[in-house]
Design brief:
Length: about 130
Amino acid sequence: MWQEPRYQKETVRENPVEEVKKITFRPATDIYEMPDGFKLLLEMPSVDRETLKVYIKDNQLHIEGEKKKDVSDGKFLLQEIRDVAYERVFELGDDIDADSISARYEQGILEITLKKKEKEPVKEIKIQ
């Protein structure tokens, strides 16, 4: 579900670039369970691949990315397209193999694959 930003009423400004702030969204996510793991699909349109980060910290999967515009060669007269940051965090269960997580980004969708740990066989202890 998208996190709804709260906008203030827009007014005409002499220098609109200084007034624009970055907005942070929780990207819309689909999660699928498969026999051997899970697949997450996160909608992150127009994000630069270089800004994407997927990492594990404190048994949580963190996903971050940004959409920025390059304005080095001009001056805005009107700016309605905002710089956007995407952030999402998921708790990892004990059944996830953190070393086998993979990710790919294509056409605005970040796909993350998480493999389940193989179940250890029951080991019977002989009583003497």
